[in-house]
Amino acid sequence: MTSSSTRPYRVGDWSEPLRRSSPVALILFLGIVAGLLARHLWSGASGTPAAAEWLATSEWSVERDRGIPELYGYALLTIGIVGLVVLGRRRSRPVLHAWAATFALILLDDQMMVHERGGRILVRLLGSPTEILGVRAQDVGELAVWAVLALLPLLAVVVLHRLSDGPTRRLSAALGVLLGALVLFGIVFDQLHSMFLDGLPVAGPVAGAFEDGGELAVMAVLAAFVIGLLRERVEPAPIKVLEQPDRLDLKV
Questions:
Q1: At what angle do helices 114-125 and 137-162 cross, to 10 degrees?
Q2: Contact between 150 and 102 (Cβ < 8 Å)
């Protein structure tokens, strides 16, 4: 039988490493996410003026910048980044460092609003159009800036992934799935929310909970995944001992 450490990498092998997530951390992190979303929906999704005021001012709203849910997401992402750096050093796997840099870029961009500011600058350079190809110009500018920012770390991930062994590729593929889910919620659904549902009394807060809650859930899985990997005991590589030829000692 071929063990998971020796069998060749296959594209669909990304799910196996995720099952090594720390169950305690996963339940804890996702439980906190569920509580934050419940609070958001209970207080902000009724469609009343009081609910609209709560969404705009409460630190518990998942849609508010620098609110408690967003800070919690930063903490989860920081756990994932630091853990990947430690894992990359402990296991001598450069691709894990590249993944740490990619998630660190996401964290830095979210904290400093790089793609929002860069998008506004790009729109001004293009003559301040309101739409580009039927899409809001600011949204197009933000996506373009994001693509440029992500180019170098993702290129490093691709190159180092291809140079890695089978088990490391499986870990890398799992991280790629998590990144894809984060992009889906944080960019695709965020743009759809801002284009079609932003400001609607009930649908807006519900869509915000789905979008931001999805991001938090992915970050929770990432943090629990890395914690589970850190708790694993990695056996050192076996050392081959060269056998010495038998010698015949002659005594005179």
A1: 120
A2: yes
Distances in whole angstroms, Cα of residue 160 to Cα of each of 7, 11, 95, 173: 19, 16, 5, 12
Decide: pTM greater than 0.70.
yes
In sequence order, the 6+-apart residues with CB closer than 8 A to the CB of 55 are: 44, 61, 63, 64, 205, 208
Residue that the structure tokens 């943090």 belong to: 223
**Local structure of residue 66 (DSSP, 8 states):** T
Radius of gyration of the chain (CA): 24
- d(CA 24, CA 226) in angstroms, rounded, equals 13
86: left (phi over 0), alpha (psi -120 to 50) or beta: alpha
Residues in CB range of 183: below 8 A, 6 or more apart: none
Q: Where are the domains positioned within the chain? A: 18-231
Q: What is the pLDDT of residues 90-130, one digit of tens each?
A: 988 999 999 999 999 889 887 777 666 666 676 677 766 66
Within 10 angstroms of residue 108's Cβ, the number of other Cβ atoms is: 11
